[in-house]
Amino acid sequence: SRSPYTDFWAKALRKSGPFDAALVSTVLPFLGASATQYAQKLLAPKTKIEFRCDTSKKLNVLDVACIGPDGVDSYRAASGGGKERADICIALAVRDLIKKRQGRWPDVMVLDEAAAYLDQTGLDRLMGLLHEIADTGSRIWCITHRPELADRFSSILCVTKKNGVSYVQQQ
Predict the structure, then answer these.
(1) Are 157 and 110 in contact (CB under 8 A)?
(2) Are 12 and 18 in contact (CB under 8 A)?
């Protein structure tokens, strides 16, 4: 299974896609270095995330490798939580690219079910990292169906649906 980020870039980089692969490949080293920094916090020390863009075929091909301390690409064999953490690292690297290009952090970061498959260790690492990010001034919105996470956030909006109508309540 591929990362949703890989699928997005693969579609965008098609020969007929909106982005030129040569242009995108100029930012891949930055994204890889940034994602690697996050991977060493969320996954394991000495973990490396690499982006590979092959433009020699009819379709440009973008692949992501998550190289563990043992030198093996663990993304395809990873558990749901392992893939989820690698995907979060990639999303955070894109956030860093925005900072580099725009000169400031994005105002809001939205994570939809980012903790769905995480075990306790992965969740603790993620929450620590999210608190670091919040300290940069970005607001973080986490969408989750795990009520046990409520005490880990400073503000909570609860959305409930009743008779086909959604209601928002601050807790």
Answers:
(1) no
(2) yes
